[in-house]
Structures are given as C-alpha cells and as structure tokens.
C-alpha cells in the first residue's frame, strides 16, 4: 500500500516534546514531508495532539515546523490540525505569571516559572519565542473530531468540566487561554495534569461519556507515554506501540518520543483502528534534555 497522501488518510502525532529531528525523520518516512520538513503529503490530514515543548532540545523548532506545515498543507489540498497540550499551558503560565506561587503536590510551594522548569522546561524556548508563536499557542483547540475519531491531548475526563459539546469546550478553553486570570490558569493546569482515566474498571464508562458529549466512535490521545504503562509487561517494547484502553474505545499514541532512545511513532488511522505505524529510522536520536 502506498503511503502517499490520499483523501481518507488521517495521521496522528503524539507528544513530540522538542524531538524535532526525530519528528521530521518520521514525517519524511511517511511521505508527509521531504527531508527538510516541507509538506509533500498531498491531501493527507495530520493531527498533532499537543505537547510540542519542553524536555527535548528544540521545542520552539517543533512549534515553528507545525505552524509551517499548517500553512503549506492548506495550500496543497491537505490539512494540519494542532491541539493544545498541558505543556503549552505550563509554558505560557511561566511567561505570564513567572513569580506567582502555586502549590504542587510533587514540588510543594513553587513559582510558575520554577514549576515549568521542573517539568522539563527549556530556557531557549522561553527566550526565543515570538509574539506570533505565543498567539498561535494560545489559540490551539482542546479537542477535534475527524470522522469516527475524537482527538485530544490527555487521557482525561477533565474536558467535560469545560464544555458539553466540542464547540463549547474549545470556546471555553480559548477564553481561559486568552484571559489574564491567574486563578483560572491554576485550576486549568491542575485539571490538565489528570491522566489514565480510560484504564481500569471504569475506563470504558469514562470513554463512553466523552464520546457521548463530543461525538465519534473512538478516542485517540497522547499525554501518558505507553512505555510507562507497559513497562511491567513481559512483551514490553521499549520503543512503544499504540495502546488500546477503555474497552477498546481509547487509543494512546504517546510513544515517548523525547524519553526513549529510538522511541516514538506516528500513526495512520483507519475508520476504527490503527492502519500504519511509522517509527524513527535505525539511528540514534537519543539526547539529554539539556543537549544543545
């Protein structure tokens, strides 16, 4: 089967976290871009599920690549959609409220700037970000529907607190992100930290609640690296592989792109399942979070 973009092709990309070179290598392997990251995907659709920044060496480069792909794909009959991740919220809070104190269950009393750094924040992203980058980040939708798929960043039901329809959800999140109101930001950051909602005995019920509210037959999300969930499994693959939960209603595609040597993947979806999984080429993309 050809990987070249077709009208029904929809690809999803989980948490990138600054792993720019690895991302471009996989987009190129999927024939969505050339080797320099320029759109070649024709009419394909690509949805990025958030968390472009932090942990890896070039979060700002990832942001600018995705912004460029949005523009280029639209000119060539394709479509790129980029969702909001919790690390974008932390990054923007570190800029907007650098000295404001918050209470973290993990770190105790800590400023927003310190909290961002403790969660992998990279100072070059902070100092290099432009006004246009910031505007784009603030305006990312919280969730998106594509055919049978409901797409979001987090494996969380927190979205239901912000709207009972997709339109209401995205509008209310946009209001939080574009309003200077520290208490609302604090609550939103805390809510966005929730994870693993679709696992366990109540996972299917929670997934069904999300689908009833926002539509679709299946959920696809990132936020929680699959390696963290499968590490005790005897068949564990340290590279990561798409992982179903919620009684087969929720698909996790966070492949630990910035955490694991040669980990990470991008996924082409069919109407109801995983179609194609593209992994990084067999060369070492490993880096420390403080690599230049």
Kindly describe this structure:
The chain has a single domain, classed as Purple Acid Phosphatase, chain A, domain 2. The chain is built from 10 helices and 12 strands. With 292 residues, the protein is of the alpha/beta class. It holds the Pfam family Metallophos. It comes from Deinococcus maricopensis (strain DSM 21211 / LMG 22137 / NRRL B-23946 / LB-34).
Produce a short descriptive summary.
It comes from Deinococcus maricopensis (strain DSM 21211 / LMG 22137 / NRRL B-23946 / LB-34). This protein has a single domain, classed as Metallo-dependent phosphatases (Purple Acid Phosphatase, chain A, domain 2, 4-Layer Sandwich), CATH 3.60.21. Helix content is 34%, strand content 16%.
Total helical segments: 10
Helix content: 25-40%
Instruction: Give me the secondary-structure category.
Output: alpha/beta
Order of helices and strands: EHEHEHEEHHHEEHHHEHEEEE
In terms of DSSP E residues, the strand content is 15-25%
- Measured between the Cα atoms of the first and last residue, the distance is 39 Å
How are the strands of the biggest sheet laid out side by side? 3-2-1-11-12
CATH class: Alpha Beta
The third-level CATH topology is Purple Acid Phosphatase, chain A, domain 2
The total of beta strands comes to 12
Anisotropy-based shape: globular
CATH superfamily: Metallo-dependent phosphatases
CATH architecture descriptor name: 4-Layer Sandwich
Mean pLDDT: 91
Q: What is the makeup of the main sheet? A: 5 strands, mixed
Radius of gyration: 18 Å
Stretches where pLDDT is under 50 for at least 5 consecutive residues are 1-7, 284-292
How many structural units, i.e. domains? 1
Pfam families: Metallophos (PF00149)
GO molecular function, one term: hydrolase activity
InterPro entries: Calcineurin-like_PHP (IPR004843), Metallo-depent_PP-like (IPR029052), Ser/Thr-sp_prot-phosphatase (IPR006186)
Protein name: Metallophosphoesterase
């Amino acid at each position: 089967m050809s990987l070249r973009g077709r009208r029904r092709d929809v690809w999803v990309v989980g948490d990138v976290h600054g792993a720019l070179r690895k991302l471009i290598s996989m987009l190129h392997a999927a024939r969505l871009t050339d080797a320099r990251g320029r759109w070649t995907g024709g009419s394909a659709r690509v949805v990025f599920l958030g968390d472009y920044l932090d942990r890896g060496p070039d979060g700002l480069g990832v942001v600018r690549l995705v912004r460029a792909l949005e523009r280029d794909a639209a000119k060539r009959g394709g479509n790129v959609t980029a969702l909001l991740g919790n690390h974008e919220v932390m990054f923007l809070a570190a800029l907007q409220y650098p000295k404001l104190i918050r209470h973290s269950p993990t770190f105790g009393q800590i400023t927003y700037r310190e909290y961002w750094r403790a969660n992998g924040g990279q100072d070059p992203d902070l100092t290099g970000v432009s006004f246009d980058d910031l505007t784009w980040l603030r305006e990312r939708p919280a969730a998106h529907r594509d055919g049978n798929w409901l797409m979001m960043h987090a494996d969380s039901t927190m979205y239901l607190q912000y709207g009972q329809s997709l339109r209401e959800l995205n509008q209310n999140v946009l209001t939080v992100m574009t309003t200077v109101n520290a208490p609302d930001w604090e609550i939103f950051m805390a809510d966005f930290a929730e994870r693993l909602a679709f696992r366990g005995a109540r996972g299917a019920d929670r997934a069904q609640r999300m689908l009833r509210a926002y539509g679709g037959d299946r959920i696809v999300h990132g936020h929680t690296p699959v390696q963290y969930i499968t590490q005790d499994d005897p068949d564990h693959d340290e590279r990561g592989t798409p992982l179903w939960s919620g009684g087969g209603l929720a698909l996790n595609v966070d492949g630990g792109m910035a955490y694991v040597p040669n980990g990470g993947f991008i996924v082409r979806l069919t109407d109801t399942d995983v179609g194609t999984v593209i992994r990084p080429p067999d060369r070492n993309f490993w880096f420390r979070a403080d690599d230049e």
